[in-house]
Amino acid sequence: MKIMYVEDNPANISLVMRIARMGGHQVVSFSNGEAALSNHDKENPDLIFMDVQIEGRLSGLDVVRGLRARGVKKPIIAVTAYAMLGDKERCIEAGCDSYISKPLPITELVELVQRYEVE
């Protein structure tokens, strides 16, 4: 399975890459929304982890809305340090399928990857 991770924190990218490799998955990462949008079709990921607050002029939720507007149906998981009341709902309304908060809980991250594995 190919996972796209849009994140500007190298430590988080490294963690997701280690977890993905354990399951035999590949990770491509982008640190800003513009790059994620322009490279999505070329990379054709099976699963997308989207940090909500990323570098550049687009937020992660802007990228999600853009992907959904283009007809992308792949699962998108919001990843955010913001765990305030209403944040999960905003992510789901933007088009995310699920939500995970930072710091990334390894067990939950592994379970999410397994849930969306392409057979």
Label this structure with key terms:
alpha/beta; five-stranded parallel sheet; about 120 residues
Main sheet specs: 5 strands, parallel
Task: Please mark out the parts with pLDDT under 50 across 5 or more consecutive residues, or reply none.
Answer: none
Helix content: 40-55%
Strand order of the largest sheet: 2-1-3-4-5
Mean pLDDT: 91
Distance between the termini: 9 Å
What does this structure look like?
With 119 residues, the protein is of the alpha/beta class. The chain is 44% helix and 20% strand. The chain contains five helices and five strands, in the order βαβαβαβαβα. β1, α1 (10-22) and β2 (26-30) form a beta-alpha-beta unit. α1 crosses α5 (106-115) and α2 runs parallel beside α3 (60-69). The protein starts with a strand and ends with a helix.
